[in-house]
Amino acid sequence: MASNDNLSGRDDNRVELHVPRGESESVIQVTLRTLAVMRNVPISDLEPLYERIEPDALVDLLSHAEECNAAVSVEFTVEGHTVAISHEEGEHLGDSNPVVVEVVDDA
Q1: What pLDDT is recorded for position 37?
Q2: Do 35 and 68 meet the contact criterion of CB atoms below 8 Å apart?
Q3: What Pfam families does its record include (predicted)?
Q4: Residue 7 pLDDT
Q5: What is the pTM of this model?
Q6: How many CB atoms lie within 10 A of CB 97?
Q7: Contact between 5 and 18 (Cβ < 8 Å)
Q8: What is the pLDDT, as a whole number, of residue 62?
Q9: Which segments in the chain show pLDDT lower than 50?
Q10: What per-residue string of b and e applies to 27-55 under the rule 16 or more CB within 10 Å gives b?
Q11: Distance of CA 86 to CAs 8, 18, 74, Å?
């Protein structure tokens, strides 16, 4: 489920979505799902992420960070949106997912 957070001190034209990743969902899938929600279009109408980033390298980096219990953050722009994907270091219990995807509407 996506949540729309408009925090005080932020630009009123700025829309942020913080989206949890489902257990069986890849970081690429949740990124595409979030972009589709922001643009109000089906995922199939989005520009392929491989036009902007190397998806396999992103997945490998996040997997490595999880294995090493390290923090890492990657940010890129696609279709007028800034996408920030991060893995936070620390112990994560049960089904808690340490990967966070944030999408900001830069319009």
Answers
A1: 86
A2: no
A3: HalOD1
A4: 38
A5: 0.71
A6: 16
A7: yes
A8: 87
A9: 1-10, 91-95
A10: bbebbbbbbeebbeeeeeebeebeeebeb
A11: 23, 11, 6
The structural domains of the chain, with segments of one domain joined by +, span 3-105
Nearest-angstrom CA–CA distance, 68 and 87? 11
Tell me which of 1.20.58, 2.40.30, 3.30.465, 3.30.70 is the CATH number of domain 3-105. Answer: 3.30.465
3-state SS record for the chain? CCEECCCCCCCCCCEEEEECCCCCCCHHHHHHHHHHHHHCCCHHHCCCHHHCCCHHHHHHHHHHHHHHCCCEEEEEEECCEEEEEEECCCCCCCCCCCEEEEEEECC
What would the two tokens of residue 68 be?
């090493």
What length is written for the chain? 107
CB-CB neighbours of 60 under 10 Å: 11
* Radius of gyration from C-alpha coordinates of the chain: 14
